[in-house]
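so im writing up the methods section and need the Glycerol-1-phosphate dehydrogenase [NAD(P)+] record in one place, dumping it here so i stop losing it
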Amino acid sequence: MFEKSTWIKLPRNVVVGHGVLADLGAVVDDLSVVGRPLVVTSPSPERLVGDRVRAQLGSDPATVTVENAGFDAVERVVEAAEREGATYLVGLGGGKPIDTAKMAADHLGFGFVSVPTAASHDGIVSGRSSIPEGDTRHSVAADPPLAVVADTEVVAAAPWELTTAGCADIVSNYTAVEDWQLAHRLQNVEYSEYAGALSRMTAEMLVENAGSIKQGLEESAWVVVKALVSSGVAMSIAGSSRPASGAEHLFSHRLDRIEPGRALHGHQVGVGSILVAYLHEGEQGMWRNIRDALAVIGAPTTAAELGFDDETVIEALTTAHRIRDRYTILGTGISEAAAREAATVTGVI
Ligand SMILES: NC(=O)C1=CN([C@@H]2O[C@H](COP(=O)(O)OP(=O)(O)OC[C@H]3O[C@@H](n4cnc5c(N)ncnc54)[C@H](OP(=O)(O)O)[C@@H]3O)[C@@H](O)[C@H]2O)C=CC1
Ligand SMILES: O=C(CO)COP(=O)(O)O
Ligand SMILES: [Zn+2]
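--- predicted struct ---
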């Protein structure tokens, strides 16, 4: 008897384009959410567009600013929502406030609206929150946003490095899917052909268009935001972050533990993807294409460009498998010699 079932949760409205922040009020009205919003943001987005966002939302919006991601921040947002009598959340900013809002909304049983101010990560749309805790980092299931409003004028005005970080987060889907397929073959981990294909195609399209992604072009923000949406949808189809997070993400999460705040998430996973592609396929494999695409976009391809010394990269690569119970090419850990060879051959160190 056939007993399989799946529940794919997706946003109802995804609005991307020039000036669409002005449509936020209409988008919220269309969702039929009622009551008081709580805007969850971080310092820069608050300073840049906080007032414009609140002006779009009726019912005297409250605001909470998060400085660091983590369960503490989620708890603070939950408390603020209860204290302020909020009934829905608006995540405004980069991955940190959006992930925090997403998870707090899930705890509260509230809907939330995602308003990215940077094309820096593919959690804009996803039904996952990536939350650090101690030496580990959890990929927590949460409802995806009810709506996403991504104003390309705002995103294009953000520092260029945030956009190149988003590009690298997408390029890293190559190795994430490789790891997922490996885990499927070796560990019988459930694999979704649709999610895997969508994720890989998104990375391929971005790599093919890498030459046209240029600083100062709002069209580039458009291309990257659409790719981030597509990658987030792949995660929702999979019901996990597997299509967009493999060993390259474990490597990045370790770097976050060793030297928090040193480099952007997307930039770290991009360099991780070069290393992991080498570990998968050796010298003749995809790692050169990944490195070249990152270089064309202007994302870091070396430890030095990330701002880490060589030994930090080796430490992160040899301990990344401990981050979480997710089978990847790293298996139960790679030796220091193997890590050093991968980093040296690929020019990462
Ligand atoms: N849930 C998921 O599926 C995914 C989650 N993630 C998570 O997202 C996080 C990474 O996202 P990221 O966006 O890099 O993190 P942040 O939210 O920390 O944003 C990075 C930086 O960008 C700044 N910023 C944001 N928007 C603007 C703007 N318009 N102009 C100027 N500065 C701006 C922030 O400033 P300030 O701090 O001053 O406000 C911050 O310093 C990681 O924690 C990662 O794990 C990543 C991918 C997928
Ligand atoms: O960053 C992600 C996808 O780009 C997901 O993060 P996790 O590795 O925590 O699942
Ligand atoms: Zn990521």
